[in-house]
Task: inverse folding
């Protein structure tokens, strides 16, 4: 489902003496449907960079990233937009929403945008918010005013609302209490069971062991190691 | 599927100075594209050339018309272009007073656009005006008030209602949230996003506010000195800018 071949990444800082920073060289990785792969490596090894490249948020310098047949490295913006709407979900560590939009709508939105009718989308949003223990009295409020942990859970609910065939998880269990952490692990298991290919960053070793089938250490793809 | 709008080599000079130079892109149905750049970068010139307010020196602006398919709007006849401006296109000005008739009631401002495309039944026009005022969150009790009695944010929302009432397919917006305070901006953004999705609109938004394009636009074009220096997916251009100017622009934003 997710195939990464020989991907490299450099950052050129034009306004800081045109410094060129090479952060990744020839990274390759593939994830099958129903499989969960954890990215590991020390801070700075390029875990988040690779996740962002898979999502099309960072531009890879070379190589290819195939998701359901679309090469994210070369795809047109509208192809990536369609991919993100239908195929590729991303649970980031930060919630970014239009101010003023109620939590329930924030969570239901991914479903509405793939054409699910409002009633069914709202039902699914309610179910997820309940499972993630967001009190019902908060559902009609914008999540921008919520605590960090609550925002993260809203983000997770939003990420799991639509049954994406491919899913990227950036520290989904960080800063969650034990009960909510278990719920998130359950959600990941359910996604795997329905055949989702998952790539994640988990600093929590126990959580990683509980859901991941394989661990890929990115240190081997850093330019220093290759040189 | 075909693009809704196809811009090819669009160029406008002001004497020896360049307004915008050799701009080309395709806009697809349902897509929202942002154009950013500092003052004087040519973004408003480009928008006005596309919308038919300025005559470009070179290039084509092809639009997928309902009856004849792809047609160059620059070479089409004036009445034809004006009809397009009333039916399929809309233009939201930065200053609401440029897009509104200030001495006509709010309901009249919305109804006038409907009459321009042939609506004649007073009751229906008024109902539809009332419905649109509701959608842009203006209380129906204000339907007979003139825009001069409205706040800046309300005027802007009224301008949007006036523009969208005829169900256009393409909306040009020039700094739609400029000059509004932030709480009003947020409300307007939320409203615009909802309308764009519900109506399946395509839009081109000129702004210098990067936060606005991040929330509204799928794609982004960065302009400097009349040239497009970078284009792509909005979050990719903002989070991993490739061009020196875009990097400067993104890193210059003050963090709140």
Result:
């Amino acid at each position: 489902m997710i195939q990464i071949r020989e991907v490299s990444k450099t950052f050129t800082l034009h306004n800081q003496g045109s410094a060129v920073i090479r952060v990744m060289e020839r990274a390759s990785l593939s994830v099958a449907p129903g499989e969960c792969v954890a990215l590991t490596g020390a801070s700075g090894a390029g875990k988040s960079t690779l996740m962002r490249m898979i999502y099309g948020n960072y531009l890879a310098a070379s190589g290819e990233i195939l998701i359901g047949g679309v090469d994210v490295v070369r795809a047109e913006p509208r192809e990536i937009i369609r991919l993100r709407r239908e195929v590729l979900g991303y649970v980031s560590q930060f919630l970014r929403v239009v101010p003023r939009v109620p939590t329930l709508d924030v969570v239901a939105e991914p479903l509405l945008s793939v054409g699910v009718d409002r009633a069914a989308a709202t039902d699914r949003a309610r179910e997820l918010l309940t499972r993630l223990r967001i009190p019902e009295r908060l559902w009609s409020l914008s999540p921008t005013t919520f605590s960090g942990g609550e925002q993260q859970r809203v983000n997770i609910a939003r990420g799991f609302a639509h049954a994406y065939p491919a899913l990227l998880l950036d520290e989904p269990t960080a800063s969650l209490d034990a009960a909510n952490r278990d719920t998130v692990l359950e959600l990941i298991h359910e996604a795997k069971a329905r055949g989702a290919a998952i790539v994640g960053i988990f600093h929590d070793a126990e959580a990683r062991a509980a859901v991941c089938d394989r661990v890929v250490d990115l240190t081997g793809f850093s330019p220093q190691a290759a040189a | 599927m075909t693009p809704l709008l196809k811009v090819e080599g669009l160029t406008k000079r002001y004497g020896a100075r360049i307004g915008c130079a050799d701009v080309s892109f395709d806009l697809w149905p349902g897509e929202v594209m942002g154009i950013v750049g500092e003052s004087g970068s040519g973004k408003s010139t480009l928008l006005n050339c596309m919308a038919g307010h300025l005559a470009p020196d070179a290039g084509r602006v092809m639009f997928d018309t309902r009856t004849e398919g792809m047609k160059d709007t620059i070479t089409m006849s004036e009445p034809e272009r004006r009809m397009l401006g009333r039916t399929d296109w809309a233009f939201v000005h930065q200053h609401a007073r440029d897009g509104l008739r200030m001495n006509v009631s709010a309901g009249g401002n919305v109804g006038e656009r409907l009459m321009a495309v042939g609506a004649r039944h007073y009751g229906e026009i008024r109902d539809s005006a009332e419905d649109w005022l509701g959608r842009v969150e203006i209380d129906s009790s204000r339907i007979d008030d003139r825009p001069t009695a409205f706040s800046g944010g309300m005027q802007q929302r009224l301008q949007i209602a006036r523009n969208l009432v005829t169900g256009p397919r393409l909306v040009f917006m020039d700094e739609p949230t400029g000059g509004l305070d932030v709480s009003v901006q947020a409300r307007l953004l939320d409203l615009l996003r909802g309308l764009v999705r519900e109506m399946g609109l395509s839009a081109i938004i000129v702004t210098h506010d990067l936060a606005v394009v991040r929330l509204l636009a799928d794609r982004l074009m960065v302009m400097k000195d009349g040239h497009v220096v970078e284009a792509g997916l909005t979050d990719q251009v903002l989070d991993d800018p490739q061009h020196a100017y875009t990097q400067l622009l993104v890193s210059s934003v003050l963090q709140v």
